Every structure is written in C-alpha cells, then in structure tokens.
Amino acid sequence: KTMIQLNCSQTKNNGNAARVIGGNGYVAVLASVPVSGSSRLDALKAFADIQQKYGTVLSNRTPDVREANLGARGRYHRLMVGPPSSAENANSLCKELKSAGYPSCWITAY
Q1: What's the per-residue H, E or C state across 52-108?
Q2: Which CA distances in Å does 106 have to 4, 32, 77?
Q3: What's the pTM value of the predicted model, to 2 decimals?
Q4: I want to staple 18 with a disulfide (CB 3.0 to 4.6 A). Which of 25, 34, 84, 108 is the partner?
C-alpha cells in the first residue's frame, strides 16, 4: 500500500478559529492515502497499526477518515484522530506523537 506522510505543522488559535474555520474544532492527521477502492479501509488499518505502536498516546482516540481533494495532486483519504478540539490540543497530540517517534502528523480543521 502507498502512503504519503507529511510533517507536523503548527497552527495558532486565536480563540475563534475552531468556530470560524472548522466549525467542529481541529484534529490531528496521521496519514494520507491516495483514493482507491480500498483506501478508506487501508487508512483505518494504518490507524490500528499506529495505535498499536503508539498506544500510550492514542489509547483513547477515535479514528476518522475523510476525503480531501488536492486538485492536480489528486484525491486522498486522510486518517484523522479525534475527538475534535482546539488547535492547541490537536497540535499537542502531534507533538506527543513526534516525541514518541511518529514523524508524520499535522493538524486540520474538522
């Protein structure tokens, strides 16, 4: 299976960003899989693998998969971890994962 992983980026939250941008807050994105017939399932399987390895950080987290259209770069299923919360909390989760050795995490509005 093919996975594209990007680095964690920091997002500043001005207090209203979750309501304005995402409406439901922010989540950490752990992986992005090119859309195919099995990509949604592949993303969920990837979460199970990542959760097994980084269980202390992800033990109480819920996975979600959403499609993202990146224009000329194509469509991807993004593996996200919730529940949605503030940008600061989502970024904190990425930092915890990076400290534990998982290099590919970034945040996005949910």
Answers
A1: HHCHHHHCCCEEEEEEEECHHHCEEEEEEEEEEECHHHHHHHHHHHHHHCCCCCEEE
A2: 12, 11, 14
A3: 0.76
A4: 25
User: How many angstroms separate the CA atoms of 25 and 18, rounded?
Assistant: 4
CA angle 33, 39, 31 (to 5 degrees): 30
Check if the beta carbon of residue 63 is closer than 8 Å to that of residue 57.
no
Distance CA 31, CA 5 (A): 5
Q: What would the two tokens of residue 36 be? A: 């195919």
Per residue in 20-50, pLDDT (tens digit) is: 345 789 999 999 999 999 999 999 999 999 9
